[in-house]
Automatic annotation (TrEMBL):
GO terms for biological process: carboxylic acid metabolic process. It comes from Komagataeibacter intermedius AF2. GO terms for molecular function: acetolactate synthase activity; flavin adenine dinucleotide binding; magnesium ion binding; thiamine pyrophosphate binding. It comes from the Bacteria. This is Acetolactate synthase. Keywords: Thiamine pyrophosphate. Belongs to the TPP enzyme family.
Length: 606
């Protein structure tokens, strides 16, 4: 009897947690060993029991899946319904939670990360209210076709019968802005639904998907096998490429325009597009309202982005017999104008992985479904052969395009020279000096609408992924997207250009940049008004506002907003620039610091 008592005492002293059976050797990972050693990070009784039964909380299952999918960051802002997930993150060093101070910033950070990293961003919002806060930037992500796995905590499903606080129909709220939305009903469903979300967010057309995560599902234990990620090759090669090669080669040299849409970026096909342009002697335009410039702006065949009005696009295309559109929705227009952006007699050829967009708006003699990069790799030798009889004509067309580009750049430099000594910095001068300071190798995230056309005019980089822009149109994307972009690029420097109005939508992103010590330079282009709206109203001669010069709700000057104080309050260094000669040195110093900074540039309203 004494021997039995001694054995029990030894067992109890060997275990930190009484009343729990010893853990077999096969389960003794480092945390288990620490438990026996009395380490403060010892596993809990629940974890020991889980290792014996195979059961884990739903939140732990979710995180296991994320780790296996290669997720590094969870972008979020927690509330009560997200606490099981937050608790499960303890002791998982490979999953870093990026805290944003408002859900609109959460979504845009994940968007910027996904675009820069080329993989889905994962984010966690706070039930109905938090999802509502994030909807504007979620719509931006949908329009930009950014792959996101969006989740939100939901009230315990046993609680919903009593209409509790914070409860809402998350699936219905999210549905208009995502590819699909679903609520997880049991922890056993997590492996299938979460992996489906990652796969479907990347499938053409890429975009956000949504999962609602009730608290009881996150707390429920399960022994479900999380499995491993599926390997899916999406490099489908379009059919009909010989026909397309003959059609493109048959167009008179110099009478074809190529439009490199956002899908070129996702397919990493800039080099292939450049090779097609070389063979065909064709200029390469960007989309009218782009998410990316997916082409090297230093390439002599780069012709800039299309305008945003249908009449202006039609005027730009008037000298072409055909366009070759790579990717969908490259001719987005903002405000209505009479007529089609594609002029009569101009044929539209397309290649896109999104079958829904082919022939959707414009009649096409031939459009093909397939991955752009894989399809162009096959098309190139076919084009080379089909154009060989007229090689001299295509070469001459290419030389004319190069000369036209040089002329446009000279005109742009002349515009800057004429306004360089203006008493208030002109937008074209501000953009010129900013781009000059940034150089060709630093990523640019642009939400400064008043200067964006000038910024794109002065870009000159062989890096086809340098520039990203607010395609969705809902303000408040740029500053948090720049934070996410830096993370997606391995914490590399990023410069965010933002208008003074847009800077007020998600200023909380400044805190996250400071908290994470990210080398992001925020450049506020401050004209103290909603300049784009005023400009449009001035052009409407029948508007009373234009006739009287009185514009309601468009001035941000009474009182003026102190962006320096705002940046300082979030932990950033800041400076104010009122002279053009000070712009480049200020931005160069900000980037060299390796810290987040804010540079405010006062610009004129013209």
């Amino acid at each position: 009897m004494i021997i039995i008592i001694i054995i029990k005492i030894k067992m109890a002293s060997a275990l930190i947690i009484p009343m729990v059976d010893p853990v077999p050797e096969t389960w003794c990972d480092s945390r288990t060993v620490n438990a026996y050693a009395g380490d403060s990070m010892a596993i809990t009784p629940l974890e020991v029991a889980a290792r014996r039964t195979g059961g884990r909380r739903g939140a732990d299952i979710l995180l296991e899946i994320l780790e296996s999918e290669g997720v590094s960051y969870i972008f979020g802002n927690p509330g009560t319904t997200e606490l099981p997930l937050i608790d499960a993150l303890q002791g998982r060093p490979d999953l870093k939670y990026i805290l944003a101070l408002q859900e609109a910033s959460v979504v845009a950070m994940a968007d910027g990360y996904a675009q820069a990293a080329g993989r889905p961003g994962f984010l966690n919002l706070h039930t109905a209210g938090g999802l509502g806060h994030g909807m504007g930037n979620l719509l931006n992500a949908s329009v930009s076709q950014t792959p996101l796995v969006v989740t939100a905590g939901q009230q315990d499903s046993r609680h919903t019968i009593s209409d509790p606080l914070l409860f809402g129909d998350l699936v219905s709220i999210a549905t208009p802005a995502v590819k699909w939305a679903q609520e997880v009903l049991h922890a056993d469903q997590l492996p299938v639904l979460v992996r489906r979300a990652f796969n479907d967010s990347m499938a053409a057309p890429s975009g956000p998907v949504f999962l609602s995560l009730p608290m009881d599902v996150m707390e429920e234990t399960s022994d479900v096998d999380v499995g491993s990620p599926s390997v899916i090759n999406r490099d489908s090669i379009a059919g009909g490429l010989p026909d397309l090669a003959r059609a493109l080669a048959g167009i008179t040299p110099g009478r074809l325009a190529i439009i490199a849409g956002d899908e070129v970026h996702g397919a990493d096909a800039a080099a292939q597009v450049a090779a097609v342009a070389e063979i065909l002697g064709a200029p390469v335009y960007g989309a009218s309202w782009p998410s990316r410039i997916p082409f090297a702006t230093s390439c002599p065949l780069w012709a800039g982005n299309m305008p945003t009005r249908a009449t202006d696009i039609a005027h730009r295309l008037a000298d072409y017999d055909a366009i070759f559109a790579l990717g969908g929705k490259s001719l987005i227009t903002i405000l209505y104008s009479e007529g089609s952006p594609v002029p009569p007699g101009c044929a539209v050829y397309q290649v896109s992985a999104d079958v829904r967009d082919l022939g959707r708006t414009f009649q096409t003699p031939l459009s093909l479904v397939g991955n752009i990069r894989a399809s162009l790799d096959v098309l190139l030798p076919l084009l080379q052969q089909a154009t060989q009889p007229r090689r001299a004509e295509f070469t001459a067309a290419r030389h004319r395009i190069i000369a036209a580009r040089a002329s446009r750049r000279a005109e742009a430099e002349g515009l800057v020279a004429r306004h360089r000594d203006d008493p208030v910095i002109a937008p074209c001068v501000a953009a010129h000096e900013v781009v000059r300071a940034i150089g060709p190798r630093i990523a640019i995230v642009d939400e400064a609408i008043a200067t964006s056309s000038y910024t794109r005019m002065f870009l000159d980089s062989d890096w086809a992924a340098q520039y990203s822009f607010l395609r969705g149109g809902a303000l408040g994307w740029g500053m948090p997207a720049a934070v996410g972009a830096s993370l997606g690029l391995g914490r590399e420097p990023v410069v965010c250009l933002v208008g003074d109005g847009a800077a007020l939508y998600s200023p909380q992103a400044l805190w996250t940049a400071a908290h994470e010590s990210l080398p992001v330079t925020f450049v506020v282009m401050n004209n103290r008004e909603y300049n784009v709206l005023k400009g449009f109203m001035r052009g409407q001669t029948h508007y009373i506002s234009a006739q009287e010069g009185n514009f309601l709700a468009m001035d941000l000057c009474n009182p003026p907003i102190d962006y320096q104080a705002m940046a300082t309050s979030y932990g950033l260094d800041a400076c104010l620039i009122t002279r053009a000669t000070d712009i480049a040195p200020a931005i160069e110093a900000a980037m060299a610091s390796g810290r987040p900074n804010l540079v405010e540039i006062v610009i004129s309203t013209i």
